[in-house]
């Protein structure tokens, strides 16, 4: 699924610093996919997996691509969050969960520009 | 440098502290301390100051295999022990936790940032009680017999699953470990546990205390990056069940691994719990009103890092002004600072990442038009704590369609709104992706019951909040996860059902 076009700006983008990490992760792990998480603990984090590690489901919305990798969010979550645009950035400190960039000692952050 | 006074515990490792500290901690596998095969360690920070205080193993997938080897080597013997023997071990674990209450409470507080008055009174005593509860429960278990006809009987036995994988969150490292370990072991399983990356250490202090009580291989603890060892554990062919507490996407990943391996999973994935205050809470200025005010302020318990944080307060419009004024007074009195000070009511968030997320949500709330009633900033907690991850207890007033009402912030941020009548309260309460907890406050027992049954959440606290007795089932509706924790029903969740179908009829069926 793709979101209906609401405005001309892309629904998801990434900062140059994040793109650099994405490029490194792609070189090391192969094709990637991003999933916007919710809920407990590190809930608002965008999680980065090897593409196919978590198959996108029928209710995942692909908001776009960052660094050539698809970025998904659960459709109902996107609706409830009020269709925000996402700018994926990177911050120091390892990701707390299963996200691949944790291996590099950093974590991706979903910012709302 | 820590400033220590009469009400403050010395930090782990310092002279006078109840907690001894080693420079470096290995994995706990097969009853021994085993260096990670990677040879790597990572600095472990305290959120009180943001400074490292020890190193903890940074393991690889191979270390998960070693832990699984140890668990599989132990499972036959442990699974065949009588319930009374297993219960004896669990009771001994509880005794050891209790005997080390202060040490564990200070360790937990220092690593996670939760105030020591909470760990002394709640986290650690509850952890001990969970082991006692499941020790008692497993001894009282009995199978069922179905009489199919007078010559045919189905005997039902609960048998251990074998070896399970358990992944715990950072918000209650010791208590969440107890929630997962106690029923698994009581039911006769061995476990491989992966602590959360921000809090790998206090559970190792627990292992120091109970390591000689639990038979080797029954409990194994491996620390390292989730992307490597979390995956290696959760997707492993040698586990018979996986249990996870965390966010939704990893919950889905865990369940997809479980599906691929055809094993059961339990996931607890958070919430956005409504806490509903009807007009009659203000009918008298008495203990009940006082309790209700505390009930609202409980959003700041464990600095809001609780899956069931009552993070949406719904208040009847007729009492809003007066009730909120009383609550804001109570919130303003929250003492923030060093969690090792017994007078501190709120410590730092667990990590810089969490602090950053909380700040970003307050910003999002402001941009959405929410009104900041109190807080909203990093507090000044003194120079010696300036590197810590502190955030003020915050209240945002707005409406339920705002993102700060819809997404779990996992911090001390309350979103508050009003409702006109019971119907609207219920609609707002259920207008969420999640369904983990809820609170209902009223002096009207019938209304409390109606609301409790109608709210789509796994736990509805009625005229109370944030109580976690072992004998009460806990878990989510909707996107808050699948399965339950606590309560003796967990013994079933950590067992297989064996049906022995026996015929006492000497005659053949007559088909062939």
Largest sheet entry of chain A: 4 strands, mixed
Question: Describe the biggest sheet of chain B?
Answer: 7 strands, mixed
Regions with little confidence, pLDDT below 50 for 5+ residues of chain B = none
Q: In whole angstroms, how far apart are the ends of chain B?
A: 86 Å
Please provide a written account of the structure.
With 113 residues, chain A is of the alpha/beta class. In chain A, 18% of the residues lie in helices and 35% in strands. Chain A has two helices and seven strands; from the N terminus they run E-H-E-E-E-E-H-E-E. In chain A, the strands form two sheets. Chain A has a four-stranded mixed β-sheet. In chain A, a hairpin with a 2-residue loop joins strand 4 and strand 5 (69-74). The longest helix of chain A is centred in the N-terminal third of the chain and has 14 residues, at 16-29. The mean pLDDT of chain A is 92. Chain B has helices spanning 61-80, 83-99, 101-112, 116-139, 173-186, 202-210, 226-234, 248-261, 287-297, 320-332, 352-368, 403-406, 422-430, 445-454, 489-493, and strands spanning 24-25, 27-29, 32-34, 41-46, 51-57, 145-149, 152-160, 163-167, 190-194, 219-221, 241-245, 265-268, 274-277, 312-316, 371-374, 394-397, 413-419, 434-435, 437-441, 459-462, 474-475, 477-478, 481-482, 484-485, 495-503. Chain B has 512 residues and is α/β, with parallel strands linked by helices. At the A-B interface, helix 2 and strand 7 of A face helix 7, helix 8 and helix 11 of B.
Question: Which short descriptors sum up this protein?
Answer:
heterodimer, A: 113 residues, alpha/beta, four-stranded mixed beta sheet, three-stranded mixed beta sheet, 2 helices, globular, B: 512 residues, seven-stranded mixed beta sheet, six-stranded mixed beta sheet, 25 strands, 37% helix, 21% strand
Short recap of the structure:
The complex is a heterodimer of chains A (113) and B (512). Helices cover 18% and strands 35% of the residues of chain A.
Structural topology:
The complex is a heterodimer of chains A (113) and B (512).
Chain A: E1 12-14, H1 16-29, E2 32-36, E3 46-50, E4 60-66, E5 69-74, H2 75-80, E6 86-92, E7 106-111
Chain B: E1 24-25, E2 27-29, E3 32-34, E4 41-46, E5 51-57, H1 61-80, H2 83-99, H3 101-112, H4 116-139, E6 145-149, E7 152-160, E8 163-167, H5 173-186, E9 190-194, H6 202-210, E10 219-221, H7 226-234, E11 241-245, H8 248-261, E12 265-268, E13 274-277, H9 287-297, E14 312-316, H10 320-332, H11 352-368, E15 371-374, E16 394-397, H12 403-406, E17 413-419, H13 422-430, E18 434-435, E19 437-441, H14 445-454, E20 459-462, E21 474-475, E22 477-478, E23 481-482, E24 484-485, H15 489-493, E25 495-503
Parallel strand pairs in B: 1-5, 8-9, 8-11, 9-10, 11-12, 13-14, 13-19, 14-17, 16-17, 19-20
Antiparallel strand pairs in B: 2-3, 4-5, 6-7, 7-25, 12-23, 15-16, 18-22, 21-24
